[in-house]
Amino acid sequence: MESRAPFLNPAAVLSPLGGVRLLQCVCCCVALSLVAHDGGWDGAPGYFCMCAWCFCLALSSLVVCFEFTRLHGCLRLSWENFTITFALLAAQMVLTATVVYPVYFASDLRCQEGGCSSRDFRISATVCSAVACLAYAVEVHLTRARPGSLGGYMATAPGLLKVVQAYISCIIFGALLNDSEYGRYPATQWCVGVYSVCFILTVLVIGLNVAGKVPVPHCPMDRLVVLYTFLAALLYLSASIVWPIFCFDNKYGSMERPASCSRGHCSWDSQLVVAIFTYVNLILYVADLIYSQKVLYIARP
């Protein structure tokens, strides 16, 4: 009789990595439960925080279940690339929720007329969210590629940078949609085109790696990725020059925040957010280009 591997994998929950993933599930579950019970989550910021915690809880639970039952071997994707990509994406989403939620819902630490329970729930939810963010960061640290070792592309520095670039692009798009007035000039529309093209290509590179579909036969994928990164850096360089000129130069916009701007509904604020994160993504693409020179592009099915 032939021996076979056991169906269940206890290391998925008993190893340090498994423990970190269980901590992620617990912290996200507790955070969203506290907020749903009596913490408050009205408006777009609250909905984003709840969606972030729910999304991360759902996928983290699936990762633990698939690892424990070894069913991830049945999936037609690169599991190593998928898990570290999700871990970094979740770390960024939960970090955003950890910052956004207390700003909008826990900035006033005074007790209300009905007691201090709502305040305590909001503070506790923020703490749980921060612990979950730390747990996702620890997973990224544990599973990232080490120097000199073979690993999935998404576990390397360029792969991780691409996940951050895509997330920063989402923040830029959110600011653009929030009364940024990007359609006033063709130059600012050019910048929107830059953000869109770079985002689509970055997501395409991530998706191909997670799907385990690279490299394509007879196609030097590593060179294509480096070429794309170089072009993206040039495009972002142009946007980092054009956007501030047409938004903050006195000829086209204003250097100072208008006094009539209200919180959450100010085009100047949105334009400032876009400008800041344009420079952030420019730095990320330049760093990506530098690291890409040292990475061997290997598909990990």
Textual characterization of the structure:
There is one protein chain. By secondary structure, the chain is mainly alpha-helical. It is 70% helix and 0% strand. It is flat and about 75 Å long.
**How many H/I helical runs?**
9
Q: What's the shape? A: flat
Query: What is the CA-based Rg, rounded?
Result: 22 Å
Write the H/E string, N to C.
HHHHHHHHH
Give the biggest sheet: none
Q: Percent helix among the residues? A: 55-70%
Total strands: the figure is 0
Low-pLDDT stretches:
none
**What class would the helix/strand composition place it in?**
mainly alpha
What is the straight-line distance between the termini?
30 Å
Q: What would the average pLDDT be, to the nearest integer?
A: 86
Q: What fraction of the residues are assigned to beta strands by DSSP? A: under 5%
